[in-house]
Design brief:
single chain; about 350 residues; alpha+beta; Dna Ligase, domain 1; D-amino Acid Aminotransferase, Chain A, domain 1; nine-stranded antiparallel beta sheet; 17 strands; about 30% helix; globular
């Protein structure tokens, strides 16, 4: 099968790698000439608004998917008129706007942080008065890994927040007093069948995911599956989806969802019977979904900014290294390691060793 993938970053790269044993041949449409995914598949290097590239891409592929949610929706719509696109365009469009996303959660009865749309400094002041402080001002579109956000802790912060982000559609979200951050990765096939991975417990640093631990048997797994299941059904979804949640003393509150494979699911490559990448490919290709059961006690550590020496990482037992082939840069995800052990205590020991090595290499 010739699979078209919009985007050529590390998620596309890992999708392409998992597709090779299944005879799924990827074509990446990515404007960046140095796209790291091009090592595992054909690379169409052209702007997304290039009509000749659109015609070439749609003619060559049998099915299309995407590896990031900032794909221009008109381009995806034009492709969908010619070949099947999964996940569906509606899911992409909802996820591209934080306000639309929150409104969908509300319609489905899924709890969220309190929120208000903001289009002026006066509206921001009104929203602060309504929601209270502290609160987070966010761009409705394009923010990720802590970008496009401003924490407002006092009324005196309002002018600076508006100066930093004003001029584009914004949303103000009230703070959620959570005890932990979790996410659930789910897959839905063309036939409506669904599978759910064990909950992931996530720790962020500077707005970027730092570590993830798989939590099979977590008491909140049924609640997370019920929420994610509502979302999958409402969107008539096909593919892998990740839903990020706050644990508020036993109640799960939705933060946002990603209509794609997700960083918090990278542990599934070595730590699950079927990785999130393979299950995404199975779903979009119309193949049966695979088991999501954990293998051992898996975890993820992101390598951000710089890469520790490869030999030093490989010297740590039970660690699996993934370098993305990207240049080192502050706040950039340049790789990750998966830890897979026989016990939780052993897992924590390996995570600590990786983190120590990262600190030494800076």
């Amino acid at each position: 099968m010739k699979l078209g993938i919009l985007g050529g970053g590390q998620l596309g790269r890992m999708l392409g790698m998992e597709g090779l044993p299944l005879a799924i041949d990827p074509l990446f449409w990515e404007p960046e000439a140095t796209a790291c995914a091009q090592l595992v598949g054909e690379h169409l290097c052209a702007a997304y608004d290039d009509p000749a590239a659109l015609a070439q891409f749609a003619q060559q592929v049998e099915v299309c998917t995407y590896e990031f949610e900032n794909v221009p929706s008109p381009v995806l719509g034009a492709i969908a008129a010619q070949v099947p696109v999964y996940p569906p365009l509606a899911a992409l469009e909802v996820s591209q706007d934080r306000l639309t996303e929150k409104q969908l959660f509300a319609r489905l009865g899924i709890p969220t942080a309190p929120y208000a749309a903001v289009d002026s400094e006066a509206a921001l002041r009104d929203a602060v008065a309504s929601l209270g402080l502290p609160a987070i001002l966010k761009t409705r579109r394009f923010g990720y890994d802590g970008k496009g956000q401003y924490v407002i802790r006092s009324e005196g912060d309002i002018p600076a927040a508006w100066q930093a982000l004003g001029g584009v559609p914004l949303i103000l979200e009230g703070f959620v007093n959570f005890v932990r951050e979790v996410s659930i990765v789910a897959a839905r096939g063309r036939d409506g069948s669904t599978v759910f991975y064990p909950l992931s417990e996530n720790v962020h640093r500077d707005g970027i995911l730092f570590t993830t631990r798989a939590r099979p048997g977590d008491s909140q797994q049924p609640q997370a599956e019920a929420i994610a299941g509502k979302l999958l059904a409402a969107l008539e979804y096909v593919g892998v989806l990740c839903l990020e949640l706050f644990d508020v003393n036993g109640t799960l509150v939705a933060n946002e969802f990603a209509p794609r494979v997700h960083n918090s699911g990278h542990w599934t490559i070595e730590g699950a019977e079927t990785s999130q990448f393979e299950n995404h490919l199975r779903a979009v290709a119309g193949l049966p979904l695979g088991s999501t059961a954990c293998v051992g006690f898996p975890a993820l550590v992101n390598l951000v900014g710089t890469l520790p020496p490869l030999a030093s990482l490989l010297a740590i037992p039970q660690v699996h290294v993934h370098f993305y082939g990207k240049s080192e840069k502050p706040a950039r995800k340049v790789g990750h390691v998966t830890v897979r052990t026989h016990s939780e205590s052993e897992r924590e020991q390996r995570i600590a060793q990786v983190i120590e090595l990262m600190q030494e290499s800076r």
